[in-house]
Amino acid sequence: MIVVTGATGNVGRTLVRLLVEQGHEVTAVARRIAPADVPHGVRALTADLAQPAARLPVMADAVFLLVGGDLMMTADPAAVVAPFAHYGNIVLLSSQGVVTRPDSLSHGQAFAAYEQAVMDSGADWTILRPGGFASNAYAWAPSVKASRTISAPFGDVALPAIDPDDIAAVAAVVLTRPGHTKAAYELTGPASTTPLQRAAAIADAIGEEVTFTHQTREQARAQMLTFMPGPVADTTLDIIGTPTPREQTVSPDVERILGRPATTFAAWARRNAAVFA
Length: 277
Description:
Blueprint: E1 2-5, H1 12-21, E2 26-30, E3 43-46, E4 62-66, H2 69-74, H3 77-81, E5 89-93, H4 97-100, H5 105-119, E6 124-130, H6 141-147, E7 149-153, H7 164-176, E8 183-187, H8 195-206, E9 211-215, H9 217-224, H10 230-241, H11 253-258, H12 265-271, H13 273-276
Parallel strand pairs: 1-2, 1-4, 2-3, 4-5, 5-6, 6-8, 7-9
Helix pairs in contact: 1-7, 8-12, 9-10
């Protein structure tokens, strides 16, 4: 049996589906989840990983561990990881920032602490370190739907955003196949694209013109603070505004693990066109 935490999110929802399609028994865990949120036959379990008494399965072969938001910044990593230490394998969704932004409180130090807790747990482990998600473009959906406009900073700065479904596909492989113990993988898309190019891809996907407006860093930060902590916003702006060479480099790990190229942003936009139409 495989436990998937964050099971209703962009990565977890797809991962649950992939594992079920492969014939695995799955328990889907999230803070808010109902049987209707998961495929037939999957156990839906409401649990807060920040609470030591979280109602987690006693036994499992493996767990996909997602730590984000307030859990990443405020919880004790060792306490969060401890209930999974006796599982056969822990696959942690971390961040590329552990290696590219080690001094960052959010992307670097917070995720590094979880990585260390997993490595110290005594279980087999694999670390997944994605860069920016293609699905971050969902933030543009309200303005695209309302006025066919997109506002973003650093319109000409390119990064290789990754499709969350590719992260899920990689997680499904490392959870169920041998050869990935004590490995850390950096996950990116197949090519770097700028916000301007992503806006154009969304326009192509919905078949309508979309106008791009450049934001200042200050304007973008004010907007981001409405849904994320200050340290996370600041590091995110550093990455998308002044990326390091490594953050702009396409990693071969997705293709190496899946045996196919990573999904392009344009393909992600086409698959999610209804969100923006």
